[in-house]
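ZP: hey, is the fe (ii) ion complex queued? I don't see it on the tracker
AM: it wasn't, my bad. submitting now with these inputs:
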Amino acid sequence: MPTATDPLLTGIQGIHRAITRALSVLVEESRKFGSQDSVDHKITEGFRLYAHTFCDLLHAHHDGEEEIGFPRLRAQLSAEAVATLAGQHQDMLPAHHAIQTFVAAPIPWPQETWRGIHRAALSLMPGWIAHRDAEEKLIAEASKDFSPREKAALAKDLEAHGMAHAGPGPLVVPFIIYNLEGKDRAAMCSLFPFILKGVLVPYVWRGAYKPMLPFLFPR
Ligand SMILES: [Fe+2]
Ligand SMILES: [Fe+2]
């Protein structure tokens, strides 16, 4: 179990847990709404924003690993391991793109749209879980001889890449934090500066992510 002194594994596990939880929400909520005759417009808008933010985060997370994480661990990760992890990223793309396409449909969504989202999210789950578990094990092993400074530098570079590519900060940062709860949220927040977790997320950005609140853990 990483501690705050291991920002690399704390950051990767935190993002992975937020993605896992969000994917479960997409599966469950789309199943529920797909069996209803109609869904409130505002709820559908919130779900669309949540699904969009999920797709942005997943895309940026994988890009960051391929562009920064895996190359920096190349002396410790075999070429075969990197090819396997990158191949798993590729294998998730069809379901990822299907979710993006379904949620772009004009609102109100017919039941078939909700069911399409459900099928796509459900089909993404096994590949994501297998990838997450394999990657956490490989990265923990590969980085075990890194100094705290090397780990902190890599974690910082991954975070900077994520902030630059994961879509609007007012959406993606609250999305990460509020898809975590308890000690997972506390561990992830330990990596964020006070201005982000103490001012921007709870106050300044509140209006931007408000539509997603029905799908997030309580603040
Ligand atoms: Fe990955
Ligand atoms: Fe990852």
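AM: back. The first helix runs from residue 7 to 33.
ZP: great, adding it to the tracker
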